[in-house]
Each structure stands twice: as C-alpha cells, then as structure tokens.
Design a protein that fits this description.
Strand content: 15-25%
Strand order of the largest sheet: 7-8-2-1-10-11
Number of strands: 12
Distance between the termini: 89 Å
Number of helices: 7
Low-confidence stretches: 1-7, 9-29
Largest sheet: 6 strands, mixed
Radius of gyration: 27 Å
Oligomer: single chain
Shape: elongated
Structural class: alpha+beta
Mean pLDDT: 82
C-alpha cells in the first residue's frame, strides 16, 4: 500500500510539474516585449490620407500564427492573421483627425510580413513602394521574433490643407514603446516626431500656441526625467534661502540648458565620438564640485560666525 501511495504521489507531482511548465510556456509566448519601436509615415495626398506603420511581429500578442517551422511564419496561410493583427493592434489603436473631426472611415490597403533586414521604412517613398509591391514569396522565412508587420491605411480627406492630428494608443505594444512619426507635407517638407508610450493627441501641423505648449511640456519632463539635471539643480539651490535668489539661479540654469539644446539641434556641437562621454563626465564632475563647494562653504561660514 505504501508503494502504491508513493507511486500516486510521484505521478501527481509529475503531472503538476508538466502543467506548470506548460503554463509557463504559454505565459512566455504572450510576454510583453521590453523595448518596441513603432515607425510610421503620414501623408495627405489628394482626397486621402495615407498612414504607413511598421511594428515588430513579436509585439502583436495573442495572435494564432500559422507556422511552417518553429517561429517561422507560414506566409501561404498567414494573410488573414496579418490583416487581423493590423486592424486590432494598429488601426483600432489610432485615431486620426482632420481639424477637430475624427476620421472614422478607413481602408486597410496593404499588409505584409517583412524580413528584419529590410530598410524600406527609412523613407516614405521606399515604404510606400514596398507596400504597393508584390507580397513576399511563400518560401521566405520570416521569424515572428525578429520580423516586422508593415501596414498601409487610407482615410478620406475633405481637403489637403486641413490640419492633421493623431492620437496613437500603441503604448501597450511594449513595456517601453517609442513611436516615430514622419509627417510628409504637400510641399515635400517632413516633420519628425518621437513619442513615448501613449502621448495623447499629437498635432502634426500645430499652431504656434500648440507647438509652444508641447515644447514646454516636453522640456518640463526632460528635466524631471534626468537625474543629473535634478542633482545639479539641487546642489545649486541648497545654499540659497530667499525666493529671489532661487529664482535667479533656476532661470540661469534653464536659459543655459536651452542654449545647449539649441546649439545641438542646429548641429553646432562637435560630432566626434569622444564628445558625448566627455559631456557626461563633465556633468558628473560638476555635480561633485558644486556639492563639495557647498560643504566647504558651509564649514567656512560656521567657523567665521564662531
């Protein structure tokens, strides 16, 4: 009897282990990827607005992909799943506006899986040519872990002169998602945007007030996200006790930081490889220097008062 009970216990443990391993396998299959880059182009042409998007296939979770080999898509049977993924994860998760009017009608013009070595999304014309061209051969081996999903949507427009906005909700594609949007204007000019997570409504052809508001908000979060900025600013303001003195120091810091950003944006900063690490080292040295100066200054002041 003891041997039977022991066998039953061993069988139970073996079954439980198998169930746990299976559950872990399913969880890993639907794991949210850490860093996801979403590339997109938007261009009004005539009475339509084109939206081209590229996302990593691995970010499109809960899809039942047909495989012809482990992790390799069976392209001959994958068209329906690719269209479903394009609609559910990309089209349904973005709202485009013409002025204040949401563009509710859209058409999924093209969708395809693409090899990870493809560089068509470096420009609008190359990306459009890829999506308008022939689909990849069924013999292509495209990995779900490394390949891309490329999509072309079209929306009807009333006028190419309308101001276009977008509200992308692609943040859930990854733990940290970065969306790049290139707005191609009618005259060929390109406006580039980098958005983190779900940024809310983004005006792609903003008024002066809208642009100023976005820059102010971006600058505010830029300061808060930088530990080195906060440490340096804290070290600067510690010796001051009056609001007037604090205002002068913070304003000077803001102006100096704005000047450095402007010089970098206009290509006036050195482009050598040694320059970025030099700047990071100089910032760290400056923080330590100001902190030590605060300590030494306070010690001298106490001795003088004594």
């Amino acid at each position: 009897m003891a041997a039977i009970r022991g066998g039953r216990v061993a069988l139970f443990l073996l079954a439980a282990t198998a169930l746990i391993i299976g559950a872990l396998g399913r969880l890993s299959a639907h794991e949210v990827p850490n860093d996801v880059l979403i590339q997109s182009f938007i261009k009004p042409e005539g009475q339509r607005l084109r939206l081209l998007v590229r996302v990593p296939l691995v970010a499109l979770r809960d899809m039942t992909w047909p495989f012809k080999a482990p992790d390799i898509l069976d392209l001959e049977r994958a068209d329906s799943e690719l269209r479903d993924a394009a609609t559910l994860w990309i089209g349904d998760e973005a709202t485009l506006f013409e002025g204040d009017r949401a563009l509710s009608s859209r058409e999924l013009v093209a969708v395809r899986a693409t090899l990870p070595t493809d560089r068509s999304f470096e420009s609008y014309d190359q990306a459009l040519a890829l999506l308008r061209g022939p689909r990849p051969a069924d013999t292509e081996e495209i990995s779900v872990k490394e390949g891309f999903l490329d999509v072309l949507f079209e929306y009807p427009l009333e006028s190419t002169a309308s101001r276009i906005s977008i509200q992308p909700r692609w943040g859930r594609l990854g733990v940290y998602s970065l969306t790049t949007i290139q707005m191609v204007l009618a005259d060929g000019a390109i406006r580039k945007f980098q958005l983190h997570g779900d940024p809310g409504l983004v005006h792609l052809d903003p008024t002066t007030l809208q642009a100023a508001r976005r820059f102010v908000v971006a600058g505010f979060w830029h300061i808060l996200d930088g530990t080195d900025h906060l440490l340096f600013l804290l070290a600067l303001v510690i010796p001051f006790r009056r609001l007037r003195d604090l205002t002068v120091v913070i304003t000077a810091f803001t102006v100096a930081h704005s000047v450095t950003l402007l010089t970098s944006a206009f290509g006036m900063a050195p482009q050598a490889l040694w320059f970025p690490p030099f700047v990071d080292t100089a910032i760290a040295v400056t923080i330590v220097y100001v902190a030590l100066e605060n300590i030494a200054g306070a010690t001298v002041k106490r001795r003088w008062l004594a």
